[in-house]
Amino acid sequence: MACAAARSPADQDRFICIYPAYLNNKKTIAEGRRIPISKAVENPTATEIQDVCAAVGLNVFLEKNKMYSREWNRDLQYRGRVRVQLKQEDGSLCLVQFPSLYVLSLTSGS
């Protein structure tokens, strides 16, 4: 396996991961929420996250059978994660308005 420095930011395994718990207003920080509660939504699904990211023009793909390690509920509703490409092959941002998950959540929730 190549070292991390030699891999391209455009490789799918280098895309950021977004689990529904990151955006769930019913979760605490300890339970995995990563954005301000005022910008979070109630019980988002991985499919909804994928749809929103695709709608704003990001390159995304859904991994349906992945589970967030802090998620105690194993129901299908809570499964899945979305991989999102933030950087292109040359290291530049795909969309300059979305340099991180935090900025993505702030602008998409408005």
TrEMBL record:
It comes from the Eukaryota. It is found in: Cytoplasm; Nucleus, Nucleolus; Nucleus, Nucleoplasm. Its main location: cytoplasm. Signal peptide: none annotated. It holds the Pfam family SRP19. GO terms for molecular function: 7S RNA binding. One of its GO terms (biological process) is SRP-dependent cotranslational protein targeting to membrane, signal sequence recognition. Gene3D superfamilies: Signal recognition particle, SRP19-like subunit. The keyword NADP does not apply. One of its GO terms (cellular component) is signal recognition particle, endoplasmic reticulum targeting. Keywords: Cytoplasm, Nucleus, Ribonucleoprotein, RNA-binding, Signal recognition particle. Belongs to the SRP19 family. Component of the signal recognition particle (SRP) complex, a ribonucleoprotein complex that mediates the cotranslational targeting of secretory and membrane proteins to the endoplasmic reticulum (ER). Binds directly to 7SL RNA. Mediates binding of SRP54 to the SRP complex. Component of a signal recognition particle complex that consists of a 7SL RNA molecule of 300 nucleotides and six protein subunits: SRP72, SRP68, SRP54, SRP19, SRP14 and SRP9. Interacts with IPO5, IPO7, IPO8, KPNB1 and TNPO1. Interactions with IPO8 and TNPO1 may be involved in SRP19 import into the nucleus. This is Signal recognition particle 19 kDa protein. It comes from Bos indicus x Bos taurus. The gene is SRP19.
